[in-house]
Amino acid sequence: MSDKKDLYRDNGQTGSVLDEMALDNKNLQNIGVEILPVHTGGKVHAKRMPGKFRSFKWITASFWIALFVFPYLRWDGHQALLFDLGNRQFHIFGLTILPQDIWMLAMVLLFFALLLAASTAVAGRLWCGYFCFHTVWTDVFTWIEEKFEGQPNKRTKLDSSKMSLEKLKIKLPKFALWAFIAFMTSFSFVAYFTDAFDLWARLFSLEWSSTETTVILVLAAATFFFAGILREQTCIGFCPYARIQGAMIDTQTVVPTYDVDRGEPRGRMKRVKPGEEAPDLGDCIDCNLCVAVCPTGVDIRHGQQFGCITCGLCIDACDSVMDKIKKPRGLIRYASLAEFAGQKLPPLFKRPRVIVYTAIMSFAAIVMVYGLLTMSPIDLKALHERSPLFVQMSDGSIQNKWTIKVVNKSNEVMLAKISVEGPEGLTFIADKEITVPPGNVGATTLLVKIPKKNLVETNTPITILVNDVNNPTIKATYTTSFISPKKR
Ligand code: SF4
Ligand code: SF4
């Protein structure tokens, strides 16, 4: 090792590798730091490297395996998750949700919309970086690409080379695997709307409906195109969420940030000649690894940018460089602007945005749970005959007529029995039992008669009851008005 006095020491820090060697290009390579070219436009071929955010991305991406598995799960002999649009029923693990319960779906959407807003307010585009289906599919597609075509420099060269048999031999298997994943994605999506096993069977007998065929082909083509070809341009040019995120973050939001004070002025070390003054450089050695690993081609050292999906991969990259040059990690780290301005971050429960988002989320969650807990497998609607409102019978009693609708939300055929409660002398005529198929509506006519002398008002409340003959605990009631003529 040459004389230490000849070597540049950065900002007076001691104990670093700089005490022992100059971090010029050659020495950086010796300690395993690559100096990479800056991305200058064109297709982004991001470098892959291990790290905690890389691992976290794989873990969160693996949640999407559920998309491919859930259509095959069974519950009570039926598909556990089935959105049966034809019969206007959603089956969710034994629970049948009919159009009249759709308000619960609105609560689910409200909950997740607010969860998205709250998580963005706290830690930026967590959805984009770790969970978004586009990011995940692109990640898998580029991983496959790397397996077939090699490291980014090789891929760039291959892309710019002329079409040849050799090039086709490398590209075609990759395209075939992409097409298979794209097909499985669109097939799995459609399998939530029809029986999954039946959809497979009808594929081999070529009996798909035109709607199924169109949706599967269009969705597969879109998956192939957006995840394989367009990649990061989808986030930058098409995604509406990327555009509204600015309204969701503030100075207290933690996002991957480059520590300018610590890193600048950036530069690689070089031997100083006798009499020369050593440059006063920061910790960034300008290796460009943070840019090379970025799936959207962003240089985080220029500050928070529209293209940054906050995936943290540049943090992994820079930490690996800091380890090699024996500097503290965190030159790029999850941090807030407030932290860089020297302010202390208030705890989450004291941040107005977080409080408001959490309050609305809690409301939606409570309403959702209440809806689920109080949802009965049977529902009853009664439509009063309008013309005439009542009929005076020859025995002096008054008769009203209703159309009764019984909704069976269970997965079993239901035998429903109607009864009516009201003033003394009330009699009624209705079908003895109504057979209602699972997830369906059964209708009948109800005639109610009450002696005129027992009617003191023009609107007398009566209660219509329905219960399942086989399970009397399953019941529903409907309170309505029995209408009679004015007394003179
Ligand atoms: S700048 Fe960093 S956090 Fe942002 S997208 Fe690129 S690698 Fe991910
Ligand atoms: S911020 Fe880190 S990874 Fe990026 S160029 Fe500087 S030293 Fe390299």
Question: What is this structure, in a nutshell?
Answer:
The chain is an alpha+beta fold. The protein has 17 helices and 16 strands. Strand 1 (74-75) and strand 2 (78-79) form a beta hairpin.
Through-space gap between termini: 118 Å
How much helix, percentage-wise, in residues?
A: 25-40%
Shape: elongated
| E-strand count | 16
Identify low-pLDDT runs: 1-22
Summing up helix and strand content along with how strands pair, one would put the structural category as: alpha+beta
Task: Describe the protein.
28% of the residues are buried. The longest helix is centred in the middle third of the chain and has 26 residues, at 165-190. Strands 8, 9, 10, 12 and 14 form a five-stranded antiparallel sheet that branches. 39% of the residues lie in helices and 19% in strands. It folds into three domains: 4-36 and 250-344, no CATH class; 63-97 and 132-247, no CATH class; 378-483, Immunoglobulin-like. α4 (102-123) runs antiparallel to α17, α6 runs antiparallel to α8 and α6 packs across α10 (210-230). β1 and β2 form a beta hairpin. It has helices spanning 25-30, 52-62, 65-69, 102-123, 126-131, 133-149, 152-160, 165-190, 196-204, 210-230, 232-238, 240-244, 260-263, 289-292, 313-324, 337-340, 352-374, and strands at residues 74-75, 78-79, 81-84, 89-92, 95-97, 255-258, 332-335, 378-384, 391-392, 397-408, 414-421, 427-429, 434-436, 440-451, 459-468, 471-483. Residues 256, 293-294, 296, 298, 300, 308-314 line the site of one iron/sulfur cluster.
